[in-house]
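Moderator note: this is an archived Q&A kept for reference. The question asked for a predicted structure of one protein chain; the sequence and the answer are reproduced below.
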Amino acid sequence: MENCIFTNNISIELGLTEHSVNNTLQLLEDGCTIPFISRYRKERTGGLDEVQISAINELYEKLKDISKRKETILKTILEQGKLSPELQKRIENSWNATELEDIYLPYKPKRRTRAQIAREQGLEPLANIMLLQREHNVTQCAQRFVHGDIKNTDLAIKGAQDIIAEIVSENEQSRQMVRNAFRREAIIVSKVIKSKAETEEALKYSDYFDWKEPLKRCAAHRLLAMRRGESDGFLRVSIQINDDDCIKRLIGHYVRTGNECGRLVSEAVEDGYKRLILPSIETEHSSLSKEKADTEAISVFIENLRQLLLSPPLGQKRVMGIDPGYRTGCKIVCLDNQGNLLHNETIFPHPPVSKQQQSTCQLLSMISKYHIEAIAIGNGTASRETKYFVEQSIQTISENPELYIVSEDGASIYSASKIAREEFPDYDVTVRGAVSIGRRLMDPLAELVKIDPKSIGVGQYQHDVDQSRLKKSLDQTVVSCVNSVGVNLNTASVHLLTYVSGLGPSLANNIVEYRREHGPFTSREQIKKVSRIGASAYEQCAGFLRIPNAINPLDNTAVHPERYKIVEQMAKDLKCTVKDLIENQSMRKQIDINKYVCKDVGLPTLNDIMQELDKPGRDPREKVEAFEFDSNVNTPDDLEEGMVLPGIVTNITNFGAFVDIGVHQDGLVHISQLSDKFINDPTQVVKLHQHVRVKVLEVDRKRNRISLSMKNIK
């Protein structure tokens, strides 16, 4: 019964058919992963993509949490002996968390409040008399309640008002009235804490020293910036509404007479609003606005991470990785086409050591000895100078390795990590960092999965958002990217295999151990021999694992083994081999896929199969491109307003894009400066690592800010 309710709610919320939602939930309950469902179960889901399946899963988990909460609420009210059939029905029919808590509030166990104390003193009947507003002489009426701790009528009346204030604050209609006022007119206000206004640390929050705007219009990045300033102790942030209007509306709802009772109830209503309802609803809207901002920020982070993980790979070439430096020298590693470390040494081409001639000889010797095809130079300190040195050095040799500047973000995190220590126990952090730079050029995805996404240098206020939500979202993104590309079963590391659908750390380690003991895999079928990989795990992972040069050419494609018989039947019908079918386009054009539709396999799957046969084992990523900064610009002091410079997009937020122009300080292209046309999303015009041309608008040296523009650039 409950599952039917879940399906119906999810279907309405997401605008999907109940059939698709129900089948998706069944697949998830059976342990299927989201990448597997979206790729290989299109007939059952109606062709839902990963985003839709994730949304179904998230909403399902939320509804399950509400269901558990309802059980707790019903049990608590039942134990109090206050669960009427009508109340039970209301709770059971409610699937809105806020509404549910409003219903529960009057019955919710709470600390000993002023109202509770007044009830214990026997003042509830007086409160009810006052609420009816029929008594003309309240003082006389209150005289009956003067006893024990109630020394006089004033105390009796005050206690009764406390009860009324709590009744008003716990009333659903009262709360909804105030809640609606917040939705319509709430203003977020930020003020600087005066004692800290002149400090250097506060300067980065100067935009919010005296700031106010409607809460519903407050962009995620501004709200998170204000909340960070508040947590750092530089700002005081509040959410405000017109209190007088709210109080007036509440009094109008509760006060029906102009007598003494009406006046006293009016005072109680105002007290209930200021002391109880207002702080509660302000906290609620503070949480809701923060949750909304978190959602936006996480969404930005996810998209940036996706673009970064799917950055163009150089591929399997012999690469030299260089971690540049001045005093400590440039750390160089030479890697084979599988990313294995062949050699490492340090050269000192820059001041203060300046052994240029010796460094050139060392560099050229390594290029020649290890047959280096490409050079990856980290983009940190001394990057530009190192690139210039390398360019000059290789002019004298016939070998012509390509030069690339590679982001160092996260390389230092990796170099000091447990993963790096396990990979290179005999080398220090400098060597590991250079290896990471080199490998990142070869295959960004394979290298970046080893690094905590929060350390990769993309995202927006990632340390300020809900960390569990962020981690879950980022992990899902990594899984999605890894499985969309596919993984070479014979070269993938444990860390990369971990993210393959159906595997995880333990099975990934078992695969590597099996590979180490038995040599390279020759077929997908062989995966079943790996320890603890049963039928379910095999079903989930097989389609995402690639085996180049396998006996069966389908093992190097995204065609799932469960559908091999279909392809084999196609080949049989055309009187050729599967290999012939893959290699001969004219043969594939003869296939009428409608002939192969059956109970479990529809046109969506058959179309996927045909696409895969057309480009077997295709990599969805683009090809890497080299990039050159302006040679005349090296520091912020070289910048002049109006300059047009080449740059690389390093980060995208919902308020603009950050661009590296080669001065060790990224500039911001505000969203208003991204295009000659109006846009509401930076990703409409830029993507991560895109090569762009930008104009310098302003250089704020005091705050280390560079303002750039992409408008009107030819």
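Archived answer notes: The longest strand covers residues 644-653.
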